[in-house]
Design brief:
By secondary structure, the protein is α/β, with parallel strands linked by helices. Helices cover 49% and strands 16% of the residues. The chain contains seven helices and seven strands, in the order ααβαβαβαβαβαββ. Strand 6 and strand 7 form a beta hairpin. It is elongated and about 65 Å long. The N and C termini lie far apart (63 Å). 27% of the residues are buried.
């Protein structure tokens, strides 16, 4: 133990860097676990969609047009707060939010929860997980959505 204390005394910058690295790892793990809480697997999302859940895509319009989940509504994350009033009838119903990888959707779910949405959840892994599981994606074209 005395050698460790001597080492810390002789190398304060290395000790500070190690402590900082430890703090960064702990914070990262905490944020990762907070984001995944309430996240649905793709199969859980399919079950809720089949039961009539509202699906919200929080990506940009261009990303939405390139490929989205069935009847998902495109409400970019930046405008979600202003669109919440139009979605008020869904406050006590299942709402599924997704983005490209799941990170923005987790933030959107927290924002919806603050606005009174009690059953909002995100898809773990976003549209990337959805397509990885070979689930259907629709693309917006000139004549409307076309199933892929």
């Amino acid at each position: 133990m005395q050698q460790f204390i001597d080492y810390l005394g002789h190398h304060p910058l290395l000790a500070a860097a190690a402590a900082l690295a430890l703090v960064v790892v702990v914070v990262y793990e905490f944020l990762a676990s907070a984001q995944s809480s309430g996240a649905l697997s793709t199969m859980q999302a399919v079950r809720l969609i089949n039961q009539g859940a509202l699906v919200i895509d929080v990506r940009t319009r261009a990303a939405y047009d390139a490929g989205h989940i069935g009847d998902a509504r495109n409400i970019p994350a930046a405008t979600l707060g202003s669109e919440a009033e139009a979605l008020r009838k869904w406050r006590d119903r299942n709402v599924i939010v997704y983005c490209a990888t799941g990170r923005d959707a987790a933030s959107a779910v927290r924002a919806l929860a603050k606005l009174g949405f009690t059953k909002a959840a995100s898809i773990d892994g976003g549209i990337a997980a959805w397509t990885k599981d070979n689930l259907p994606v629709s693309r917006s074209g000139g004549g409307g959505p076309v199933a892929v």
